[in-house]
Amino acid sequence: MDPDAVAKAFVDHYYSTFDANRAGLGNLYQEGSMLTFEGQKIQGSQSIVAKLTSLPFQQCKHNITTVDCQPSGAGGMLVFVSGTLQLAGEQHALKFSQMFHLMPTPQGSFYVLNDIFRLNYT
Amino acid sequence: MDPDAVAKAFVDHYYSTFDANRAGLGNLYQEGSMLTFEGQKIQGSQSIVAKLTSLPFQQCKHNITTVDCQPSGAGGVLVFVSGTLQLSGEQHALKFSQMFHLMPTPQGSFYVLNDIFRLNYA
């Protein structure tokens, strides 16, 4: 498993899914998954998808600036992302940082065990 | 183990040590520890401390804005920090984001297994 390749593939898939159809993110999380979104703690795939699909915008576009990754031990992968988030109708893009802890599935894929998202205010 | 308490104690200790005496960070890392500093990958306590003590400034002060944490599985804690970094002599503070993956030691403390640091450019 090449961590950099896994991280790149995951980041591409995650943000393109987020931008096209946030409800489609459900299969990237499991029951024990945790999301902290701007300080709010949410657990479990269902609640996480409910939170993401209820965010107050219709359309958005993530532009990724940096992706760093490291193996976390026990076959897991840490991915640290920074970029901008353009909301439809807003003049200025928001800056954000996000970290994911990916764990392998028996089928040879990865799911998100830990997810922490923060906007970077200027 | 209360992740929030561990995270807060660690963040206080890490940045006060960094700001007072970067060489003192050595006992927070072990041989298998990994640091990615602005995209540069470094492994092992010795190399990590060498990198941090060679950063091109004498004095600095970290001001922490947000700290988020989650249990990572296998007794570990993920800590996601954002804040500003004021270098002595510089007019404007730099913004940064950093994530740590802390693992327990047999003595009941924690060490840094994974560390990723990125400046957030305006």
From TrEMBL, chain A:
One of its GO terms (biological process) is mRNA transport. The keyword Protein transport applies. Pfam families: NTF2. InterPro entries: NTF2, NTF2-like_dom_sf, NTF2_dom, Nuclear_transport_factor_2_euk. Residues 6-119 form the NTF2 domain. The keyword Nucleus applies. Keywords: Cytoplasm, Nucleus, Protein transport, Transport. It is found in: Cytoplasm; Nucleus; Nucleus envelope. Its main location: cytoplasm. GO terms for cellular component: cytoplasm; nuclear envelope. Interacts with RAN1. Has a role in nuclear-cytoplasmic transport of proteins and mRNAs. Facilitates protein transport into the nucleus. Interacts with various nucleoporins and with Ran-GDP. Could be part of a multicomponent system of cytosolic factors that assemble at the pore complex during nuclear import. This is Nuclear transport factor 2.
TrEMBL record, chain B:
GO terms for biological process: mRNA transport; protein import into nucleus. Keywords: Cytoplasm, Nucleus, Protein transport, Transport. Residues 6-119 form the NTF2 domain. SUPFAM superfamilies: NTF2-like. InterPro entries: NTF2, NTF2-like_dom_sf, NTF2_dom, Nuclear_transport_factor_2_euk. It is found in: Cytoplasm; Nucleus; Nucleus envelope. Its main location: cytoplasm. GO terms for cellular component: cytoplasm; nuclear envelope. PANTHER family: NUCLEAR TRANSPORT FACTOR 2. Facilitates protein transport into the nucleus. Interacts with various nucleoporins and with Ran-GDP. Could be part of a multicomponent system of cytosolic factors that assemble at the pore complex during nuclear import. Has a role in nuclear-cytoplasmic transport of proteins and mRNAs. Interacts with RAN1. This is Nuclear transport factor 2. It comes from Hibiscus syriacus (Rose of Sharon). The lineage of its organism: Eukaryota, Viridiplantae, Streptophyta, Embryophyta, Tracheophyta.
